[in-house]
Write a structure and sequence with these properties.
single chain; alpha/beta; Nucleotidyltransferase, domain 5; 2 domains; eight-stranded mixed β-sheet; 14 helices; binds adenosine-5'-diphosphate
């Protein structure tokens, strides 16, 4: 099936047209500065030239119309007509507690997504603008929502209820949701395929290490626990986000240092993590370069990042029962950072996690990087959220027709 995948932000629209049979990208692009007179339309058909056009784009509907016109145009298009489109898959950040899987976007599910807006105030309304535009432009083509949170809907209560007074969960819905679900789902699926294990039997810890970081315990192909929570600031320290901090320390900042909650929020989301510790950069490459030249705080930032990641790999393995098939690295740092992968895995030998230095030289390619005889496979699997969205979208549309 040919599926258009849309990731709509407040002023941008990322898109890919995928063929789910071949698992290939037919074309991709990005509309930037939506709403402005000098918006930018980036487009690339598979095997073709990249192009960049500057033009006025009034809103999401105009932006998506341009995408549809381009993918069907005789010069640059990749399909002859929009009749070839089987469905549109929309990346949606928050499905809350009620949306537990990818769903057909109809009045009922759209209302549920809207209800989740307070949980993702920047993302959900923007995601919905893309859906609204598609419904106007191509009312006959089904729209499917694929959620960052949905893969984690299988977590048991022991993993998602915070140990606050239970009333805060029951009355106010304060709980761990988890994010990056589409990425964790995709790399678990690929790792199982590569290892020749049915997904229902696959046990592993998936490590999404990008600017945002989360690790997930995947047991029998399902999320059992994950490091991100109610928001996207806990677990392992990230580019600019703090990761775990004792909440008492944050209360101290407010009560004793007189910081406002907004200032604390800015600190933990924008002024912490690799950037905050090192004072150098939020970017792993800059830190590795600075640390190699002897910058002590850059070295400390690397060690804190590796320590926290290593600690969570071991901690999440406790959710897997008796068998850990794989530890899977993905996203910018996980896919491209042999040094940090090696640093993380140093010290995990007790649980059978070891790296082969030769095999670990890989960047941005699927690979098993543990020694042949290692009990746990350590793997690199580049994430592909668009393909996962397309595969899920196809499954939902096919099921709805059955
Ligand atoms: P996002 O979460 O914004 O999608 P990415 O998945 O692109 O982020 O990851 C960005 C991170 O990946 C940055 O910290 C960057 O330094 C890191 N990264 C990219 N290439 C390399 C590399 N060759 N070595 C180490 N880290 C890398």
């Amino acid at each position: 099936m040919k599926i258009l995948v849309l990731n709509s932000g407040s002023s941008s629209i990322k898109f890919q047209l995928l063929d789910t049979v071949e698992r290939t990208v037919m074309c991709k692009g990005l509309v930037e500065r939506v709403g402005l007179a000098d918006a930018i339309f980036n487009y690339q058909p598979a095997g073709g030239e990249k192009s960049k056009q500057i033009l006025p784009i009034a809103d999401h509907t105009a932006g998506i119309k341009l995408v549809l016109d381009t993918i069907t145009s005789p010069e640059r298009g990749v399909i002859a007509s929009l009749d070839e489109l089987g469905a549109v898959g929309h990346r949606i950040v928050h499905g809350g507690e009620k949306i537990q899987r990818s769903v057909l976007l109809d009045e009922e599910s759209l209302a549920l997504i809207d209800e989740c807006t307070p949980l993702a105030p920047l993302h959900n309304p923007a995601n919905l603008m893309g859906v609204d535009a598609m419904q106007k432009l191509l009312p006959q083509v089904p729209n499917v929502g694929v959620f960052d949170t949905a893969f984690h809907a299988t977590m048991p209560k022991s993993a998602f209820v915070f140990a606050l007074d239970y009333a805060y969960y029951e009355k106010h819905g304060i709980r761990r949701f988890g994010f990056h679900g589409t990425s964790h789902q995709y790399v678990a699926l690929r790792a199982a395929e590569i290892l020749g294990i049915p997904l229902e039997d696959f046990n592993g810890v998936t490590c999404h290490l990008g600017n945002g970081v989360s690790l997930t315990a995947v047991k029998g192909g399902k999320s059992m626990d994950t490091t991100l929570g109610f928001g996207t600031c806990c677990g392992v320290p990230m580019g600019t986000r703090s990761g775990d901090v004792d909440p008492a320390a944050l209360m101290h900042l407010i009560d004793e240092l007189g910081m406002t909650s907004r200032q604390v929020c800015d600190l933990i989301y924008k002024g912490s993590g690799l950037k905050g510790i090192s004072g150098v950069s939020h970017d792993m490459r800059d830190l590795e370069e600075a640390a190699a030249k002897g910058h002590e705080r850059a070295e400390l930032a690397l060690e804190i990042f590796a320590h926290a990641t290593r600690k969570y790999i071991a901690a999440l393995a406790t959710s897997l029962g008796d068998r850990v098939d794989a530890v899977v690295f993905t996203a910018g740092i996980g896919e491209n950072g042999p040094e940090i992968r090696e640093r993380i895995c140093r010290g995990l030998g007790f649980m059978g996690v070891r790296i082969d230095p030769e095999r670990n030289r890989v960047r941005g390619k699927e690979a098993v990087i543990s020694p042949e005889d290692a009990p746990v496979k350590v793997m690199v699997v580049p994430t592909n959220e668009e393909l996962m969205i397309a595969l899920d979208t196809e499954a939902v549309v096919t099921a709805s027709r059955a």
